[in-house]
Specification:
Elements (H helix, E strand, L loop, with lengths): L1 E3 L10 H10 L10 H17 L7 E5 L2 H11 L5 E5 L2 H11 L6 E4 L6 H7 L10 E5 L1 E2 L4 E2 L14 E5 L16 E5 L11 E5 L1 H10 L8 H8 L10 H13 L3 H21 L6 E2 L11 E5 L2 H13 L2 E5 L8 E5 L6 H11 L1
Helix pairs in contact: 1-8, 2-8
Length: about 350
Amino acid sequence: MLSFYPGPSKVYPQSLKFIQEAYIQGIVSINHRSERFEVLLKETLESLHQKWNIPEDYTIYFISSATEAWEIVAQSLIIKNPLHLYNGAFGKKWAYYTKQIVSNGKELAFSKEESIKDYISNGPIILLDNIDTLCLVQSETSNGTGQKICRNDFGNKDDLIIAVDATSSMGGIELDWIQADIWLASVQKCMGIPAGLGVLICSPKALKRAEYLGRVDHYNSILLMEENRKLYQTHYTPNVLGIYLLNRLSQTLPNIKEIDQQTKVKMSILEDFWTHKNPYELSFLIQNSEVRLSTVLALEGRSDQISKIQQLCKKNDIELGKGYGEWKENTLRIANFPSHTIEDIETLIHLLK
């Protein structure tokens, strides 16, 4: 089946070869305190830094998922006054779970057609004086919106930590890493491997915050994670197969700049079809192209039309994403991840025609 579900989604075809390789070489059975694992982790971290253009002084950690990273941020980095700005279901969920740990957290919702920059400029007065941690969603999977993250939009306060959920974009578009202090994602989307691994990236500023707070009362303390990273180990037994797949794929895939361009080309093909050759009564859920995510396209229409398209695709071994949250009944979502080729896009369009 060809999956355009927005995560878990299509896995890179070469992953099967790498999985067999890992089994034959005994990678799936190695101890995460062994020298062999340390070599693997060191290679993987160095490769991701190179291929994704991550600054040398930013550190990468492997965890179980992006949603686990939400809790890690709350436990290790928030002092006492976080602010969540969001425009969709996953941003709202993140705010909810932060409040279970930091009870006085604040949240503000803005329009799905609005950029964070415009919201800050034209919306209600947002006083950041007492905010120590700002939580943003770069790629909101529920509605297909994507945001440009820029420190200067928030006054570039020295004592403000910015955390960004890039779950549906990391590995698929070029991210400006220095504009935030924490980036988090899961691998089952743009990284093109099976679910079960999360990526957390921290700036030196984030690590200084963790050191200042000194919290070691949770097992997923960033301080414990960093202590192990320096040894090229992980604080708990990780998904070694997932790390190996990331390692091997990063060696074969081009630099993120090239992947970013490929992502834009494929999305333009999809947008052109739904704009000019659309045989159904569907329209873009996000009308403002400036905040339309290039890795997940959300379309809205009557529920009967949505159902008709889903059934057609299912009969032809193609899976599309269902709507999510408040858009569950009247939208569908189409993933445009690096594992999806132009041929995949054309196969879908041919069927829909």
